[in-house]
Amino acid sequence: MKRVAVLIEMKDGKVKPACLGAISAAHDSDAELFALVFKGTAAASLETLQAHGIDRVIEITSQDGPIQWNADHWARAGIQALQYYNIKTLLGLASVQGKNLLSRIAALLEAPLVMDCTAVNLSEHTAVKSQFSGRAVAEFKTRGEYHLYGMRPNALSAVPSPGKAILEMFQAVLEKSKLRVLEVQQGLSDRVDLTEADIIISGGRGMENSDNFDILFECARPMSAAVGASRVAVDAGWVSHTMQVGQTGKTVSPKVYIACGISGSVQHFAGMKTAGIIMAINLDPDAAIMHKCDYAVCANLFDIIPALTRKLKEITG
After folding, report:
1. Gap between the Cα atoms of 268 and 275, Å rounded
2. Confidence (pLDDT) at 189
3. Model pLDDT for residues 189-244, shown as the tens digit of each residue
4. What is the rounded distance in angstroms from the CA atom of residue 269 to the CA atom of residue 32?
5. Residue 160 DSSP class
6. 194-316: which CATH number, 3.40.50.2300, 3.40.50.1220, 3.40.50.970, 3.10.25.10?
7. Other CB atoms within 10 A of residue 105 CB
């Protein structure tokens, strides 16, 4: 039977929801599904992974125990696991960690890699992703012994497929690496990760200044939403570049995207066009975003957002 593996990422001791979407992408392949897990988190992830169709959860360790974060060590240990279990297809997330690992694994294996995929056909070795600022969709076919794909977070919904997974330990043999991780510093922010959020509320030129972004953060909290921004807002210095959505920022696929005071340039639309539902709040009825959204509100965002926040707080208590 064909075997497919998914690189699992953890956050706060739980499997990232976006990883479950990547598992769903492999369901149609009629293959035995493996989950590759690092840092001694396999036991904590077993129940969630087997509920979504994983057949075997592989805890990758070394002779010294769990392998702490080191991209070089993780990539080489991951390759050893792929070769030991005769796995030829590997999926991961097109996240910061996923891009780091998948690119290293692909380079070491001299294997093809397609990143930011919105769909894959693992039987045909094809992947779909957007091109030219979202104006076109291209299908890529990979050839070779190994096939690697990085899935856009939230591009696919998690599909429960309850079963019974086997938990196994795999001990990789690690050599001394030129890459040394001296310290991992966790950010102090408790905000929802932009690329993995189910709901995103973004601000653009219409926000007028940095202080006004506070109303977006206040609105985001009861929805457990992330806050994004257009390039105009970032270039003006109102918010950090880490919040930028668009061609030169982050590509997102939330279930709901709320654009506040954003004109809807081609570059911005390319970063969020795969959202499930797009809502726009803008004073200009002729703004591009008003013709590209599912729901449009032609009104002052400084009236609409506070009213929405009050209603959300009433509902959530």
Report:
1. 12
2. 57
3. 567 788 889 999 999 999 999 999 999 999 999 999 999 999 999 999 999 999 99
4. 37
5. -
6. 3.40.50.1220
7. 23
Region at 194 (left for phi over 0; alpha for psi -120 to 50; beta for the rest): alpha
Question: How many C-beta neighbours within 10 Å does residue 291 have?
Answer: 11
Average pLDDT over all residues of the chain: 92
Quote the CA–CA distance of 23 and 18 in Å, as a whole number: 9
CB atoms within 10 A of CB 71: 16
Distance CA 53, CA 20 (A): 9
pLDDT in tens, 293-310: 999 999 999 999 999 999
| Helix or strand (DSSP H, E) at 80 | helix 71-84
d(CA 183, CA 91): 28
pLDDT band at 187 (very low <50, low <70, confident <90, very high): low
**What is the domain partition of the chain in residue ranges?**
3-172, 194-316
Cα three-residue angle 160-28-148, rounded to 5 degrees = 105
Cβ neighbours for 183, distance < 8 A, ≥ 6 positions apart: none
Contact 66, 60 (CB under 8 A): no
Q: Which CATH number is 3-172's, of 3.40.50.620, 3.30.300.30, 1.10.150.120, 3.30.540.10?
A: 3.40.50.620
Q: Residue 144 corresponds to which amino acid?
A: G
CA separation for the pair 145, 257 (Å, rounded) = 39
